Amino acid sequence: MLIPGLIDRLTALKLHGMAKALSDIESGDHRDLSFSDRLSLMIDHEESSRASRALTRRLQAAKLRHSSAAVEDVNFRRKRGLSRTSFLALARCDWIRSGYNLLITGPTGIGKTWLACALGQRACREGFSVRYLRLPSLFEMLMAAHGDGSFPRLLERLGKTSLLILDEFGLYSMTKDQRRDLAELIEERAQLRSTVVISQLKVEDWHQAFGEPTLADAILDRLVHNAYRLALDGKSMRDAGRPPELAS
Fold it and tell me: So what's the architecture of 63-239 in CATH?
């Protein structure tokens, strides 16, 4: 009864990895291990279990549009101006550690969002907090936050997210309030956290699409400064409704 009692106590303390390891030790081929070896094995299981649960939480919080996107599945064969060397360098996430931004541009169907989500998933695996948002969804969140008084908390939460992925930049016209809110968010993150911006427009056209020169100068300077660029080009990779990376 000693071992089952210990397992129950470990479970009650939420040491699920250690509880599972102890159960496996007693029912498997490790019963002849020394006390220190058993303890080491149990601690290893606990660390692995906690890391797995933390990764699951980060991936759920990221809300990636392509949740299964992975760096390992990137299609480098299709001609779209994507350098294997450059992209795999980005996958090391050093740019996120340094607070650099990433600007992904190109025509529709070229795989911009998928690539961003693949980098987002890798960032989650490296321990970074990530959030994917289409700009219309971001503006809805910010407007609701203004209404219920939670705007400062939302701004702080988004400002502290290690990697913020903003999709459909420049695709829709923005109101004065939306431009102001976006400016506040970018200012909150500038040179502290990394932002991925996805757009069908070339970076050179962003200023005109923004609509208000003064705010455009402020926002774009903070986004484009210290930013890497993936300027993709070519024909749509969408094939019979399949994701670009899976298209033959």
Answer: 3-Layer(aba) Sandwich (3.40)
